[in-house]
Amino acid sequence: MRNARGSLMRPFPLPGSASHPVTTPLSPSVVYASETPDALDDQYEGRVHGYTYSREGHPNADVVAATLDALEGAEGGVVTGSGMGAVSAVLLGLLKSGDHVIGGNQLYGRSLRMMKEDLPRLGIATSLADPGDVAAVRAALRPETRMVLVEVVSNPTLRVADIAGLAALCRERGLLFVVDNTFTTPRGFRPFEHGADIVIHSITKLLAGHSDVMLGYAVARDPALNDRLRVFSVTTGLTPSPFDCWLAERGMLTFPLRFDRAQASAAQLADHLAGLPGVARVIYPLRADHPDAARAQALLGGQGCNMVSFELKGGRQAANAFTRAAEGLSFAPTLGDVGTTLSHPASSSHRALTPEDRAALGLSEGFFRVSVGLEEPAALLDVFTGAVAAAVPAA
Ligand SMILES: *Cc1c(COP(=O)(O)O)cnc(C)c1O
Predict the structure, then answer these.
(1) pLDDT-derived band at 6, boundaries 50, 70, 90
(2) Which stretches does the entry tag as region Disordered (predicted)?
(3) CATH says 37-253 is which class?
(4) Which residue of 185, 305, 330, 348 lies most exposed, with the fewest beta carbons within 10 A?
């Protein structure tokens, strides 16, 4: 727009259209202008809905939150700039000095770090326990325990938590039961239907699905807790970028299709790997030889997840030969991408552990975790057949 003096002034009016776009517009605006102080009052007092400053909220984040709310059967969830942002909002936004929290002993690496380093530094005591063993979690309880944080399927050993037992324990003791549902996704598992009080996601993984966005999400069953999560996120600047939210929305439109395809391929791959002579063992929750098969079947309703772990015969040398020969598969420590990715815990996620601690978890130099993507299943199985044969030629 030009003013009377002919200088350029914002806003430039958009060309009118009798029709409307079919995609959500991207709104990168940091600030939102109001007409009058009275109009701003109406917004702040909640009499009308409106945005003010994008750290406090913006349309693209609200679209992502509404999508996740619908997937989880929840209301009022908060979107954060990464999955760890969501973990931080829950742990730091809801706990206080003097509290105690129990975490699963195989949580995501940075969540573990927060339990071991950051929370204790702030006066919040922490314990780790096996979430598959309710007696072990019960033994870790203290009078100050406020929260239990677990993942449904552990990384990379794919053990399944005793969600029913933990939910009952948390209900009995009045603890907040927090479930990081990243691996299982709301298509595989809906924690609120199993007694969870709070659900966390790294949207970065399967939900957005293309390895080009980092985002997280946290939602509580109790609206008062959602308010606290929101205020903490706004105050500490965990707010996501509109562009990332816009990309995530696009990714989530195909999430159910991608999940179904990836988990079906994962089930096939698990059985295929089990038949290869170079493979010492395969871990997949829905296989009959998995130690938690019955629990996985009950919790995941016949859907697995897209993750398969396996152990190659031969050590680091075989592992090197395998990633070299696995043409078209990225050796990269992420999961949930459209392409299949390989993670080698001994050299990445679990490299800080001592060899003895890794051995206790069964993480040998031949151990790989596979995040199965969307390749043609037959072609994918062929790549694994070839790469395993190249890595373990004697077998
Ligand atoms: C990746 C991941 C996170 C952290 O998410 P970011 O988006 O990478 O910050 C948290 N929990 C689990 C289970 C994850 O896999």
Answers:
(1) confident
(2) 1-23
(3) alpha beta
(4) 348
The model carries a pTM of 0.95
Please give the mean pLDDT across all residues of the chain. Answer: 95
Ligand 1 centroid to residue 215 C-alpha, Å: 9
Domains of the chain by residue range: 37-253, 255-391
CB of 154 within 6 A of ligand 1: the answer is no
- Give the pLDDT score at 3: 67
Cβ of residue 184 lying under 6 Å from some atom of ligand 1 = no
11-53 tens-digit pLDDT: 777 788 999 999 999 999 999 999 999 999 999 999 999 999 9
Q: Stretch 249-256: mean pLDDT, rounded?
A: 97
The CATH superfamily label for domain 255-391 reads Aspartate Aminotransferase, domain 1 (3.90.1150.10)
Is 255-391 the same fold as 37-253? no
Judged against a pLDDT cut of 60, whether residue 370 lies above it is answered with: yes
The 3-state secondary structure of the chain reads CECCCCCECCCCCCCCCCCCCCCCCCCCCCECCCCCHHHHHHHHCCCCCCCCEHHHCCHHHHHHHHHHHHHHCCCCCEEECCHHHHHHHHHHHHCCCCCEEEEECCCCHHHHHHHHHHHHHCCCEEEEECCCCHHHHHHCCCCCEEEEEEECECCCCCCECCHHHHHHHHHHHCCEEEEECCCCHHHHCCHHHHCCCEEEEECCCCCCCCCCCCCEEEEECCHHHHHHHHHHHHHHCCCCCHHHHHHHHHHHCCHHHHHHHHHHHHHHHHHHHHCCCCEEEEECCCCCCCCCHHHHHHHHCCCCCCEEEEEECCCHHHHHHHHHHCCCCEECCCCCCCCCEEECHHHCCCCCCCHHHHHHHCCCCCEEEEECCCCCHHHHHHHHHHHHHHHCCCC
